[in-house]
Amino acid sequence: MADHDEDQRHDRSQSASRDAEYEALLQELRVLLPGVEILFAFLLTIAFTEKFGAINGHLKWVYLVALGCSAFASVLLVTPSVYHRLRWREAHKEDVLRRSNAIALSATGFLAVAATSGLYVASAVVFDDTVAAALAGVIGGATVLLWYGLPMYDRARGGSRSRNEDAGSREERKPANTASPPHKKAS
Predict the structure, then answer these.
(1) Full residue range of the structural domain in which residue 80 is found
(2) pLDDT band for position 173 (cuts 50, 70, 90)
């Protein structure tokens, strides 16, 4: 009987943990989605400006990539909510969480391409292709580094520790008597 009660407590604890992880994921999606929608709306309005008719062929293709990627990022960011709604009574919370996490990460990839492509088009119209390529390359590279490279680097190192954890572990290593020895006066 005690084993059964322990199993039930463990199952409830895992379920609560998954629920908390899913709530955290949904909160992150709530932060990302307005930015994607604003980018998408901005890109939609560009096509109706006078300058858009004057841009050359390759910029229109880059624009199309930006518009398509922002639309698809929006679809992907909404997908975990719809997916959860359709499967919420099922006992497959871990599957829903894993799939939703993968979908959200995919959305950030499309968002990165959309933002970088949109930046390229706007910069090329204002400056030229060389400046646009340089700016888009720097911003795209920084995005990849910060959004993906840094977390993967930390994961490879076994996680990253916060400053408080580092300070706490330094405190633990200090000897009990930290008073400095008296200084001798030079004679």
Answers:
(1) 10-159
(2) very low
